[in-house]
């Protein structure tokens, strides 16, 4: 019986040794960076770094775009206010159909009287001359 117990104990020790060799090989596969879980972890770490840089770049661009959009919105609102004022000013103008036609102007020459000549102190304008030293006068025709 002792012999059977010794054989079983030796077989158990050999089985445990084989199991340890298999585990050692698997752990060596995990530790390598080229393949296995170690490689997957290294690849994911690189991807996380790239995504972090891409996210920072996107946030910077989004901030710049938001600032530009805010500036353009303010300019648009200012232009809209100016347009509203212009439209309001157009409503204040009278309707062109209701405006009276402007009076026609005509040239009127009048003879100067002796009293006008004495008042002006102008001796060269005689009562027989037409016009005045001031020139012809424009009056509205009725």
Structure description:
The chain is mainly α and about 140 residues long. The protein has a domain at about 30-120. Helices cover about 65% and strands about 5% of the residues. The protein has three helices and two strands; from the N terminus they run ααβαβ. Strands 1-2 form a two-stranded antiparallel sheet. The longest helix has about 55 residues, at about 35-90. The radius of gyration is 54 Å and the shape is rod-shaped. The protein starts with a helix and ends with a strand. The mean pLDDT is about 80.
Layout of secondary structure:
Layout: H1 2-31, H2 36-92, E1 105-108, H3 114-120, E2 137-140
Antiparallel strand pairs: 1-2
* Largest sheet: spatial strand order: 1-2
Range of helix content: 55-70%
Determine the strand fraction and express it as a percent band: 5-15%
Count the helices. How many? 3
Q: Specify the structural class.
A: mainly alpha
The overall pLDDT, averaged over residues, is 80
Order of helices and strands: HHEHE
Largest sheet: 2 strands, antiparallel
Rg from alpha-carbon coordinates: 54 Å
Low-confidence stretches: none
| CA(first)-CA(last) distance | 151 Å
Question: What's the gist of this structure?
Answer:
The protein is mostly helical. The protein is 66% helix and 6% strand.
Observed structural traits:
142 residues; mainly alpha; two-stranded antiparallel sheet; 3 helices
């Amino acid at each position: 019986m002792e012999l059977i117990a010794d054989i079983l104990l030796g077989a158990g020790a050999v089985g445990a040794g084989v199991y340890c060799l298999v585990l050692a090989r698997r752990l060596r596969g995990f530790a390598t960076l080229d393949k296995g879980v170690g490689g997957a972890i290294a690849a994911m770490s690189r991807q996380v770094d790239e995504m972090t840089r891409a996210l920072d770049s996107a946030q910077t661009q989004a901030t710049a775009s938001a600032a530009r959009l805010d500036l353009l919105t303010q300019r648009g609102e200012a232009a809209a206010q100016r347009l509203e004022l212009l439209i309001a000013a157009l409503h204040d103008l009278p309707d062109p159909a209701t405006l009276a036609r402007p009076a026609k102007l005509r040239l009127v020459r009048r003879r100067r009287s002796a009293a006008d000549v004495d008042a002006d102190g102008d001796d060269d304008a005689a009562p027989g001359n037409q016009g005045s030293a001031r020139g012809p006068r424009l009056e509205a025709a009725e």
